[in-house]
Amino acid sequence: MLKKLAKCVREYKGTAILTLLLMVGEAIIETLIPFVTATFLINKIQEQGKNLDMGYILAVGGVLVLMAVVSLTCGGLAGFTSARASAGFAKNLRHDIFAKIQSFSFGNIDKFSSASLVTRITTDVQNVRMAFMMIIRTAVRSPLMLILSIAMSAFMGGWLAVTFVVVIPVLGGGLWLVSKKAMPAFRRVFKKYDRLNESIEENVRGMRVVKGFSREDYEKEKFAGAADSICEDFTRAERIVALNTPLMNFCMYFNMTVVLLLGSFMAINGIKGVQIGHISALLTYGMSILMSLMMLSMIYVMLTMSAQAAKRICEVLDEVPDMSEVENPITEVKDGSIDFENVNFKYSAQAQKFALFDIDLHIDSGMTVGIIGGTGSSKSTLVQLIPRLYDVTEGAVKVGGVDVRDYSIESLRNSVAVVLQKNLLFAGSIKDNLRWGNPDATDEQMEEACRLAQADEFVRSFPDGYDSMIEQGGTNVSGGQKQRLCIARALLKRPKILILDDSTSAVDTKTDAFIRAGFKSYIPETTKIIIAQRISSVQDADLILVMENGKIADRGTHEELLKTSEIYREVWEQQTNGGDQNEAV
């Protein structure tokens, strides 16, 4: 895990090493300052009193000032370099996580919730960044200061340093116990952050539904419950961690009292080797030792917290994409012909039943194919195998006569355009969204695509026309407008295969007919697959598939299915005699 995270330091490795060297320099100088002060200034004043030359005092003072400036410079530069190294490390880590997510198949994404991925790329990365900064700064400085201060205390204080034999175990053991007790609460918080983010994401996405059903109070209570749970865990942990301060103060004042009492007694009685300067240095070193132990305790807490975050991050980085490309993939799709050969599919190896089974199907390039079926009949699952959003479990799917697994994924998906019922528009102008289909599209091409998708009229009604801004998620356009813009975006791609997954459900039948007529004139050679609930949307198709329970129950033209398919005929009669419920949409 550490090796994988260390790779993200990359170009900031030199900056991180420089931080380590600066920390070593600062620690050494800070350890030497009390020694110089005690040996060359306080003890000299005690020994010589008024006979001490003022020039000597000024010279020693100048050396101390210089040492303080060097220490300050090292600390200041280390703060700058550590911030740069840690921020760069976090940037690289986020880049690697995001790049890995982009390589995931739908199967991989299904293993993680979107809220969990957001938490890992934000909160978890921030925790790991803080831990990295602490490692290259405090985790170097504190142990070094602890070791050097103990060594200098023993060197200068003699028997007076024995007090640290009592204080260090008490403080160290106490801090370790406090940290150990606090850790379980910190670990629980990470999982609860996922649930909190899920609540926020779900609420923001479904704000119109929440308001439509007057469920604001319920959503507030749900959010408050998640927030209160995190607050309780943090309060419990922080209450335990708060014991660090009184424990630190107790050990510090105990050390000061013992050193002052014993040191004063020994100095007054002229016990050999004990001078006022030694007492002063011991007090300073004692403070350094205790502060170093305190910082080590904080490091332990932070590293334990970040270990959980690092583990969650590595779960994403270690995830192996379900799909891989062959060594020399085919980069050109010849045409839009499609073949399903003995296809069986299930979403995971652990699934007990197949979502699709016994699928054998041939579609000529340029055909229009309609697919109808009840909810859960696997209509969408079937078409998702064509652009290789999932891989078949058994059998093969071929496009242009070639197994889709033999194409480069980019080439295959550039030849297939999919328009979903719930399509997404991104924050930006209408032109920006349309250019997802073709980054080099001209204004004339975008306007033509919108006319064919029956979107040009309402786009021009906006104050800024095609330069009008779309809010995040397309919340400032209606469902029908969003669907038509997404169809126009797909048309700009001029794909060899166009898949419409119930993507005209929010438009009326007249507009739906105009859109289908536009397909015939604009992309006559493109294979068009239309999933619909309304038979009127597919009745003119060259081939209609009736899906039921993951199988193709019936196939044929509209007239043939009316004669041979009981399912198709029943739906047709309901929609014509009983009235198509979608007509009023």
What features would you describe in this structure?
This protein is α/β, with parallel strands linked by helices and 585 residues long. It is built from 20 helices and 12 strands. It has helices spanning 2-6, 13-48, 54-102, 106-109, 114-136, 138-157, 163-205, 207-212, 216-241, 244-268, 276-318, 379-384, 409-414, 430-434, 443-452, 456-461, 479-492, 509-522, 558-564, 566-576, and strands spanning 338-345, 356-363, 368-373, 394-399, 402-403, 416-420, 428-429, 469-470, 497-501, 527-531, 543-548, 551-556. The strands form 3 sheets. The chain has a 6-stranded mixed sheet. Strands 2-1-4-5 form a 4-stranded antiparallel sheet, with no helix packed on it. A two-stranded antiparallel ribbon has the order 7-8. Helix 2 runs antiparallel to helix 3 and helix 2 (13-48) packs parallel to helix 6. It is elongated and about 120 Å long.
